[in-house]
Amino acid sequence: MRQYGRMLVLAAVVLLVDQASKFWATSALSDGRTITVIPQLIRLRLLLNAGAAFSTGEGVTWVFTLTTAAAVAGILYVGRRLRSPAWTLVLGALLGGATSHLLDRLFRPPAFAQGHVVDFIDYGGLFVGNVADIAIVGGGAFLLLLNLRDVPLGGVPDKGRPSA
User: Fold this and answer.
1) Which tens digits make up the pLDDT trace of 101-153?
2) HSE-up of residue 109 (Cα within 13 Å, Cβ side)
3) Which of 18, 119, 150, 158 does the annotation list as catalytic?
4) Among this protein's residues, is 133 annotated catalytic?
């Protein structure tokens, strides 16, 4: 249970940082203001996203709400088996990011379970994201790496699995 607790702490940190940054963004950037951080690469501007990545699926926000709730429940369930510090980091980042997005979907306008996610980090005009997105993408990349390296969730190597 020790790794599970660490996963929850990391998830709480990601959630708090993401929600605090969204609070700042909605108050500082709601008038259409933009802030250039790195010219031609990163600027801050407010975007309320009804869809998923790249604003896809804007008409089915409720599907994202249900999917995110299922992901959060799945991570909480799987996380009980954690023994690996690396997997604790991955699942904590994913859980924090997903929970923060779920809170946006549930409690932000326009309606319960149909809320828009607050995005404000513009990556050179390619896409606009937030801190939770960084945690989710980073966690997903690290998850892929752990799977490719056969790092077990439970901390004990799977001896029945053939090596490549």
Assistant:
1) 999 999 999 888 888 999 999 999 999 999 999 999 999 999 999 999 999 98
2) 3
3) 119
4) yes
